[in-house]
Amino acid sequence: MLFLCNVTHTHKIILRLHLVAENCYGNCTQSVRFLSNMATRWGICSAGKISHDFTVALKTLPPEDHQVVAVAARTLEDAQGFAKKHSISRAYGSYDELARDPDIDVVYVGVIHPYHLITCLLFTNAKKNVLCEKPLAMNTKEVKEILASAKRNDVFLMEAVWTRFFPASVEIRRLLAQGELGEVKMVRSEFGVPLMHVPRSTQKELGGGAMLDIGIYCLQFICMVYNGEKPECIQATGTCLETGVDETVVVTLKFSKNRMAVFTCSSCVQLPNDAIISGTEGTIRIPAHMWCPTSLVVNGKETQYPMPEPYLPLNFLNSTGMRYEAEEVRQCLLKGLKESAVISHADSLLLAEVEDEIRRQVGVVYSQDCQ
User: 168 in helix, strand or coil?
Assistant: First the structure.
């Protein structure tokens, strides 16, 4: 009898796997793969600084949950150097080869943002799940095209707005949901660092400009606090470089019920880089650095949220905090989701729409806006 019971149980398992296979679309092997006892297999697209930091962040997570399987760069030499540094078994000299790798569950796209559209489409059309660095694209039109491709190909897609997944950000959302501040009436945020020496921050063809590079952190914070609501009024002013990209931008946003927000971003000067949420019954302050928060001050009481130590030197501050967005991707894939509720497709679309209006008022036009 025991033997028969075991056989029946085995048959049930086989039957469930067959049902999954019969109901999947496109890449059936991926649908069957997402079991909780299997690691999420990452492919890294680009061998630049941010990809280095993301890979280091992944290594702070359990290896039974996350594995980096392959890296692709514009040259095989760059990919091989990256692979050697991070002990990655496969190195590709083109992104197309990574897209064709059947052992990749999700691709991290770390190319600069003028290439987000073509790169995301490459992977979504190859039925690959995608985590793409912010901003998701250069404008609303491109964002819509990426989202449509992800939906058409039935794959997961998320804009890598890493700030939203930090423990401090999770706590902010919890406090706001519980009404700890009463009615929120004002949100202020600043992000300014000297970046004039960085070509991708000043050159238009590289997607330069403070708004898309660092201002997005201030904007996403405000949109998070106001729960994805579209502002009723946007007023922006700023200064531009001779290259035609924005250097400093100041934005005032008005939301329903007379709720306000203001943020400043600058690529030429150092700002306090903090953020404050003011409500009728209290305040929350994120000390510097608001885009990668490790502490929170709630009504004067500070709580620390330290980051795990990296195994290699990082290029950017607190980059091991990218581990939190990576784990969000894993959890979404395990649940069969195609987007995250924390930074949804609607959230990405809202960010793009507001960014477009800010750039219009400041006078920044990219070649992508004219296509």
Answer: helix
